[in-house]
Amino acid sequence: MAEEHDIVELREKLARATQLLLFRHHMRPGTKAWELRHALGRDYKQILKLLDAELEKLGLTVKHTSEGEEGSESDRYFVTLRGHPTLTEARTFGWRIDDMGMLTAALAYILSKGGKAPLKEVERMLQEKFPRWRIESTIDRFIRRGYLSEDDEGLLYIGWRARAEVDQKTLLGLLLGKEKPAEERKPEGGEGEAEPSGEVAEEEKA
Amino acid sequence: MPSERQELMLRIIDLCDTVRKRGLDPFDVEVREFFDRLRELLPKLRKHEELYLDIQAVLGLADVVFQQGEWIKHKSSMLYLDPLLIMLKLHALPAKDLAEVLTHSWHPIIDLEALTPHGVKEGLDYWRNLPPLDERWRGLDTTEVLTGEIARRELARMGILSDEDFAAVMDRAWRELKDAAGDGGEISYWDFISERSFEETVVKAWLVSFLVSYGYATLEIKSLEEDITLRPLPKPQRLECVTTSSVPISISREEWLQRRRARG
Fold first, then answer.
1. What is the secondary structure of B56-75 as a DSSP string?
2. Which residues of B touch A (CB under 8 A)?
3. Nearest CB partner across the interface for B101, out of A80, A104, A199
4. Which of A72 and B235 is assigned the larger pLDDT?
């Protein structure tokens, strides 16, 4: 009987944890460690482990980020995709290819500079590849959405959302592993110059 | 005029600031040497201002030591990659490849927006306090006033009209430009518009834009020399003969100050 009661309680806690993590109840998504401890009890980490196992079946996972010391009360827990979306799927989330390219470039540049870089430098670097008029507004949007953060001295940092969503090691590894596109490697005047892919061409027209 | 001692401390503070703000290699700073110099200086410091600078310099150097620690941590981490290598990759890859790199390392957060009890209460309160539509559409109580006349001087006092006829102002600016251009028949744009105050400079730039648009002068941009030349025309052209094009020239207070300083 006691065992049955435990199972019911565990199920209730799992449901509560799912609601807390999935429904946004603050400006930012996710839930802080102290809120989870308050709602689920001291063993909230065990509940989250169980929830993670349940979410795995749906292709999701529980992640956490620390803003101060690791394991502090202000740690934030989120539910994220376990895998990664394809480029086409990402476009259906409302992301332009240019914007994704800009975010990759900005994140990689900041990471290579030890986690911070002057905004002006980042803008100058992006100007080599993207139209100037779009850069300022796009960086502003990244800051508003939490992918980047800026301090009073005009330095850009990796934002809370990028820390939660982007696997930084993978990003840098993939970037270094990427080869130059085929048409750039071909000698000048070579046959069969590749057309821009449909997706990028569409982006340019937009 | 800062003394030699103050100058050294100011230099240290500035250097430490640059390391923090620009992300320079903190190991380029000779921390030990600067601390030695500060230690030598300390007994000679008398004024409060000097002591304050000394504190600032010591704090700056302490921050550099902290940055050195962070730098080592970063370099020894898995995330350290030569910035130059990253720059080369960013330069070489097209936007689509960069986007693919992001999507392959991206695990977007899943969250749902939900109406909370507090939100429901706020909505209910708003609905209850909202006046009916016919009340909201009711016109403002106004009294009809008959049109009257207003004197030109009164309009000038209100800043709506200038005391002077605009054509006369243009004519005066044109003559001034011709005088300034002299025999050579041309003058640098910045030399001509530069005035004692920033406000006057902006007004002059505004007038020049009309001189050019209305065919009183021509403007040539020398991109290589980064200079703009103004040439007053001997006679104003007829408006229909003027070829118009738009050239944005921004004037910031900083730039104006810089040019003033450069001109002495």
1. HHHHHHHHHHHHHHHHHHHH
2. 20-23, 70-71, 74, 78-79, 81-83, 85-87, 89-114, 116
3. A104
4. B235
pTM score: 0.56
- Is the backbone of residue B82 left (phi > 0), alpha (psi -120 to 50) or beta? beta
Mean pLDDT (chain B, rounded): 82
Q: CB-based contacts of A132: which residues, under 8 Å, 6+ apart?
A: none
Query: For B16-73, how does the pLDDT look when each residue is reduced to its tens digit (9 = 90+)?
Result: 888 887 767 788 888 898 899 889 888 888 888 888 989 999 999 999 999 888 888 7
Judged by CB atoms closer than 8 Å, whether chains meet at A200 and B96 is answered as: yes
Three-state secondary structure readout of B173-214: HHHHHHHHHHHHCCEEHHHHHCCCCHHHHHHHHHHHHHHHHC
Q: How far is CA A35 from the centre of its chain?
A: 23
The structural domains of chain A, ordered by start, are 7-81 (3.90.1150), 88-177+198-202 (1.10.10.1210)
Tell me if B101 and A175 make a contact (CB, 8 A cut-off).
Answer: yes
pLDDT band at A203 (very low <50, low <70, confident <90, very high): very low
| The pLDDT of residue A205 is above 80 | no
Gap between the Cα atoms of A113 and B24, Å rounded? 9
Contacts of B68 in chain A (CB under 8 A): none
Fold classification of B166-263 (topology level): Arc Repressor Mutant, subunit A (1.10.10)
Written as six digits, the tokens of B243 are 């070829």
Tell me the sheet residues that pair with B219: B230
Contacts of B30 (CB under 8 A, 6+ apart): none
Q: Do A170 and B113 touch (CB under 8 A)?
A: no
CA dist A144 and A181 (Å) reads 32
Query: Within chain B, which residue ranges are assigned CATH 1.10.10.580?
Result: 166-263
Tell me if A78 and B111 make a contact (CB, 8 A cut-off): yes
Average pLDDT rounded to a whole number, residues A133-162: 91
pLDDT in tens, B134-145: 777 776 666 677
